[in-house]
Amino acid sequence: MWSVVLKILSILGITVLCLLAFLLTAALLVLFWPISYRGKCTASMGEYMVNFRFRWLFGLVRGTYKYPEDGKLRIKALWITVYESGGSEKVEGEETTPPEQFQQENSPREPHSQAKKKTEPPAREILPQEESLAENPPSSQGQEKDKGAQEQASGEPAAEQKADHRDIREKLLFYVDILRNKDNQELVLYSLGRLGRIITHIRPRYLRARAVAGLGEPDLTGYAYGAYCAIRPFLGKKCQMNVTPDFERRILEGEAVLRGRVMAATVLYHVCSVLFDRRLRQLTDQLRGDSSQMERQVRKTS
Q: Where is 54: in which H helix or E strand?
């Protein structure tokens, strides 16, 4: 009997270990196997074409996006379509009627004789109270009383507006003090540095592009070309870009080809390094504590 129980337990243990090994292998593959992508886009005579593809694990998982052929994002695992979106197809021979025409067609029609008839409203009788008011208009004292009542009623909203302005001012001062804190400033710089590393990792490893671009106005085209010249050195040596500005026309013509890869472990490492930072926890605790304290003050004043 005990031998049978031990055999069953050993089989269950081996099964559990196999499942854990499979899950661990899958997690390592997802984290450390890069996703490679490539794309090509062209623009000519106001027509644009985009062809983007990515693949993972020798093409077992792959995806494509094409525009304007079908305008769909399609993701496949082996031969099974996992996700598909975009590109709504129109059924041939199907005609749709506008809602106004549908309402006019389905609305009940009145007879022609009744439509031509016009009824005049009956004359309203003048009441004796209205005659007395017309003869004896209200005195100025009554008008002054009404004005005083209106001023008293309008005094309460003015006090509420002052309290709201005071609360907004206190909140602004609170956030200004947070921004002046040295630890918070270091946290912002640290987060921006990590974001820059993520962008550096995601950016294309190879980029070849040539284009003629113009925004229709010389000043806007000059600003855009200046921004391009400032970003160009950060793209790397493998990025070959040749952009010619056109200061007279509104135009965009050319083509671009790019290739790159992304590793999930690298992106996850930079994100977790910011989320688990001590300064971020201190900032969140400070925001929670001060927000609750401000709510208590508002309740006491109200």
A: strand 47-56
- For residue 56, count other CB atoms closer than 10 A to its CB: 20
Amino acid of residue 160: E
Cα distances (angstroms) measured from residue 110 to each of 19, 99, 101, 118: 76, 21, 17, 14
By three-state DSSP, how is residue 134 classified? helix
**Is the bond preceding residue 68 a cis peptide, omega within 30 degrees?**
yes
Q: Count the neighbouring beta carbons within 10 Å of the beta carbon of residue 44.
A: 11
Reference 276, options 185, 198, 199, 194; nearest CA is 194
Angle at 58 (CA atoms; ends 56, 60), nearest 5 degrees: 65
Query: Looking at this protein, which amino acid is placed at residue 37?
Result: Y
Please state, in angstroms and rounded to a whole number, the distance separating the CA atoms of residues 277 and 201: 21
Residues 6+ apart with CB under 8 A from 82: 75, 76
Q: What is the pLDDT along the chain (302 residues), one digit of tens a residue?
A: 788 888 899 999 999 999 999 999 999 999 999 999 999 999 988 888 999 999 999 999 999 998 887 678 899 998 899 998 865 444 444 444 444 444 454 444 544 444 444 445 555 555 555 555 555 555 545 555 555 555 555 555 666 666 677 778 777 887 888 888 888 899 999 999 999 999 989 988 899 999 999 998 999 999 999 999 988 887 777 788 899 999 999 999 999 999 999 999 999 999 999 999 999 998 888 888 766 665 665 565 55
If one counts every other C-beta atom within 10 angstroms of the C-beta of residue 71, the result is 13
Classify residue 90 as left (phi > 0), alpha (psi -120 to 50) or beta: beta
Report the distance separating Cα 188 and Cα 191, nearest Å.
Answer: 5
Q: Do 62 and 75 form a contact (C-beta atoms < 8 A)?
A: yes
Between the CA of residue 102 and those of 92, 98, 115, what are the distances in Å?
Answer: 21, 6, 21
Crossing angle for the helix pair 2-32 and 264-275, to the nearest 10 degrees: 90
